[in-house]
TrEMBL record:
<feature type="modified residue" description="4-aspartylphosphate">
    <location>
        <position position="58"/>
    </location>
</feature>
<keyword id="KW-0378">Hydrolase</keyword>
<feature type="active site">
    <location>
        <position position="170"/>
    </location>
</feature>
<feature type="domain" description="Response regulatory">
    <location>
        <begin position="7"/>
        <end position="124"/>
    </location>
</feature>
<feature type="domain" description="CheB-type methylesterase">
    <location>
        <begin position="158"/>
        <end position="343"/>
    </location>
</feature>
<dbReference type="InterPro" id="IPR011006">
    <property type="entry name" value="CheY-like_superfamily"/>
</dbReference>
<feature type="active site">
    <location>
        <position position="196"/>
    </location>
</feature>
<dbReference type="Pfam" id="PF01339">
    <property type="entry name" value="CheB_methylest"/>
</dbReference>
<dbReference type="InterPro" id="IPR001789">
    <property type="entry name" value="Sig_transdc_resp-reg_receiver"/>
</dbReference>
<dbReference type="Pfam" id="PF00072">
    <property type="entry name" value="Response_reg"/>
</dbReference>
<protein>
    <recommendedName>
        <fullName>Protein-glutamate methylesterase/protein-glutamine glutaminase</fullName>
        <ecNumber>3.1.1.61</ecNumber>
        <ecNumber>3.5.1.44</ecNumber>
    </recommendedName>
</protein>
<dbReference type="InterPro" id="IPR000673">
    <property type="entry name" value="Sig_transdc_resp-reg_Me-estase"/>
</dbReference>
<feature type="active site">
    <location>
        <position position="292"/>
    </location>
</feature>
<dbReference type="InterPro" id="IPR008248">
    <property type="entry name" value="CheB-like"/>
</dbReference>
<comment type="similarity">
    <text>Belongs to the CheB family.</text>
</comment>
<keyword id="KW-0145">Chemotaxis</keyword>
<comment type="function">
    <text>Involved in chemotaxis. Part of a chemotaxis signal transduction system that modulates chemotaxis in response to various stimuli. Catalyzes the demethylation of specific methylglutamate residues introduced into the chemoreceptors (methyl-accepting chemotaxis proteins or MCP) by CheR. Also mediates the irreversible deamidation of specific glutamine residues to glutamic acid.</text>
</comment>
Length: 347
């Protein structure tokens, strides 16, 4: 049985970009570009006649910027949106705003060499549209998070690094991580995170979360120590492992081949946590397309770690958590709203 075709609308002020994206998506054999426009005003007029399954959106355009357009869509007719943004510092910060406003994922767009980029990264563009089409933008809404009262103070809780939390996520993970991390207290165990995200965007993502959270959030640097109340995010384009250093935990950030088509890879992190922390670890796999992290989470469970998968109802894309559940890697499934309390109880 063939899969239903995906209708895509492209909004970008560059005619060259519109043509290149249209050609690459059409090559997939399952995606129809039903329209394209140079700015959001024209786009809305045409989309209202035939609403797409997925919107591919630039952020800097005349008459109405992409963020305003995105917020308008999500407020009136929630639709999966893939951001195609330039890989600049300013672009990264704006992209973080777009993800927070409800965009599903980001495809970095270079300032030059577009033709070569489309040839090299076209598979990522197609995969992003597929994931967006499968996403649950209407159902995976934010839920109020209730976290219990802090536990009684203890010296060990304030100083130990024995307890570790490892989180892996992909499509929809930026929003899910914001929900989880903003609900945590500074007494939570040290956290290591792999979020599938292009190079240059993880620094802006970490900085944004650090400004919103009580816990410290930063892009990981090789040798960083994992501490209570700190969350380290793997840099885009590099793998991250957990290492035991005497009585401490530190991260190793390194280059290497793609694993499960990703760098950083959740499996790389989870497997290292299984070896370094064993039963002292909590593994959490959240929303995302594909199966990265499922086998690593199983290794964590076999090593005695407690393992959790985000449930289908609150996952934007129930791909990675579902693969973990099918593999028997998760002790339990939990809604997004319950995950902060799971983390605190682990401490």
């Amino acid at each position: 049985m063939s899969r239903p075709r995906i209708g895509v609308f492209i909004v970008d002020d560059s005619a060259v970009v519109r043509q290149a994206l249209t050609a690459r998506l059409a090559e997939s054999g399952e995606i129809d570009v039903i329209g394209a426009a140079s700015d959001p005003i024209f786009a809305l007029e045409r989309m209202n006649k035939s609403w797409p399954d997925v919107v591919v959106l630039d952020l800097e355009m005349p008459r109405m910027d992409g963020i305003t357009f995105l917020k308008k869509i999500m407020a009136t007719r929630p639709t999966p949106v893939v951001i195609c943004s330039t890989m600049t510092t300013r672009g990264a910060e704006t992209t973080m705003d777009a993800l927070a406003a409800g965009a599903v994922s980001v495809i970095p767009k270079p300032t030059s060499g577009l033709k070569q980029f489309i040839q090299d990264e076209g598979g990522d563009i197609v995969a992003a549209v597929r994931a967006a089409a499968a996403s649950n933008v209407r159902g995976a809404v934010r839920q109020p998070v209730a976290v219990g009262a802090p536990p009684a103070a203890s010296g060990s809780l304030a100083t130990t690094t024995d307890r570790i939390v490892a989180i892996g996520t992909s499509t929809g993970g930026t929003q899910a991580l914001e929900v989880v991390l903003t609900a945590l207290r500074v007494t939570c165990p040290g956290i290591v995170i792999v979020q599938h995200m292009p190079e240059k965007f993880t620094a802006a993502f970490s900085a944004r979360l650090n400004g919103l959270c009580d816990v410290e959030v930063s892009e990981a640097v090789d040798g960083d120590r994992v501490l209570t109340g700190r969350a380290l995010v793997a840099p885009g384009g590099r793998h991250m492992e957990l290492r035991r250093d005497g009585a401490q935990y530190r991260v190793r950030v390194f280059d290497g081949p793609l694993v499960n088509r990703h760098r950083p890879s959740v499996d790389v992190l989870f497997r290292s946590v299984a070896k370094a922390a064993g039963r002292n670890a909590l593994g959490i796999i959240m929303t995302g397309m594909g199966d990265d992290g499922a086998r690593g989470l199983l290794e964590m469970r076999h090593a005695g770690a407690h393992t959790v998968a985000q449930d289908e109802a609150t996952s934007l894309v129930y791909g990675m958590p579902h693969e973990a559940v099918l593999l028997g890697a998760a002790d339990r499934e939990a809604p997004l709203s319950a995950i902060p309390e799971v983390i605190h109880k682990h401490g």
